[in-house]
Amino acid sequence: MERLWSVSTFLGDIDGGNPHPILSVGMTLTSGQCRAARALLDWTQDDLAERAEVSRSTVRGFEGGQHELQRSTGAAIRRALEEAGIVILERDGTGGEGVRLR
């Protein structure tokens, strides 16, 4: 399966295990997508936390697979990434999940 360079570098094995998805407006965001999106934006965990108005430990815990996010927290993270120009790609019949810049 072909993947975007940025996604394949940061997502790891998204086909197995628990990718720690969150739900936001009927869509999901995995911890790997979150890491890949930050990499595309050249953001630190602190940068994302500030823009999403959540704690750094929340971002770190989600990306590290230690916990899932509450719906409102996931929506805030997704919104911050999308407002910065990230497009979140979901798994469909043509490919796997990933992220890209608008």
TrEMBL record:
<feature type="domain" description="HTH cro/C1-type">
    <location>
        <begin position="35"/>
        <end position="68"/>
    </location>
</feature>
<dbReference type="Pfam" id="PF01381">
    <property type="entry name" value="HTH_3"/>
</dbReference>
<dbReference type="InterPro" id="IPR010982">
    <property type="entry name" value="Lambda_DNA-bd_dom_sf"/>
</dbReference>
<dbReference type="GO" id="GO:0003677">
    <property type="term" value="F:DNA binding"/>
</dbReference>
<dbReference type="InterPro" id="IPR001387">
    <property type="entry name" value="Cro/C1-type_HTH"/>
</dbReference>
<protein>
    <recommendedName>
        <fullName>HTH cro/C1-type domain-containing protein</fullName>
    </recommendedName>
</protein>
